[in-house]
Design a protein that fits this description.
Layout lengths: L1 E7 L5 H10 L3 E4 H8 L7 H8 L12 H9 L2 H26 L5 E5 L13 E6 L2 H11 L4 H10 L3 H7 L2 E4 L4 H16 L3
Parallel strand pairs: 1-3, 1-4, 2-3, 4-5
Helix pairs in contact: 2-5, 3-5, 6-7
Length: about 200
């Protein structure tokens, strides 16, 4: 097994890189997907989040209202710290279980972790960072996710800096171009990953 950490800031295109790596045969263990599973009603962290953040985070359909959660935690750094302390150990355990289930294979396993700088992992064979400048990320977030520029900027500022992500990179995917350029960058990254065998 080759174990790769994949990270990038919000709006960097990390999910698209993950999809392109999966198309090449990588097994993706996505922290965001794990979190969403855990946050479903009946999931391991759902009730704990309601206890921490209040019943108003539950929407009319009985699921978490992610916009309400985001508004609460991104405007209160203490609350964000408490939420992260609640969720991260459980996410780490679930992801580790998935990695262990693939350990004896010859697969490329990609841990898609937005907060890899903030929550480093041991045992990685390499770290792949998806990079682009902050203004391009903000533009993409406003165009593709209908965020306001202020909201996009606030979320970017809550994450590790671009420089700190680049510092942990063993290989960088530059996503400042179009989709064709990104596909070329991912192909180069794939060649690099396979060279780690």
């Amino acid at each position: 097994m080759i174990l790769i950490g994949l990270t990038g800031g919000i709006g960097s295109g990390k999910s698209e890189v993950s999809r392109l790596l999966a198309a090449r045969g990588a097994e993706i263990v996505d922290a965001d997907v794990v979190v969403r599973d855990l946050q479903r009603p009946g999931g391991e962290v759902f009730a704990k989040m309601v206890e921490l953040l209040g019943p108003e985070i539950v929407g009319a359909d009985g699921t978490l209202d992610r916009a309400v959660v985001a508004k609460k935690v991104f405007s209160d750094s203490d609350l964000l710290t408490k939420l992260n302390a609640l969720i991260h150990p459980i996410v780490r355990r679930v992801m580790n279980d998935r990695v262990e289930s693939l350990r004896a294979t010859d697969k490329v396993v990609v841990l898609d972790i937005p907060l890899l700088v903030e929550n480093p992992r041991e045992g990685l064979d390499g770290v792949l960072v998806v990079d682009l400048d902050t203004e391009t990320a903000i533009r993409r977030l406003t165009e593709q996710r209908n965020m306001s520029a202020d909201d996009a900027r606030a979320r970017i500022e809550k994450q590790a800096s671009r420089e700190s992500r680049l510092k942990i990179a063993d290989h960088v995917v530059d996503n400042s171009g179009d989709r064709a350029k990104l596909a070329e960058q991912v192909e180069k990254a794939w060649v690099w990953i396979l060279s780690l065998r």
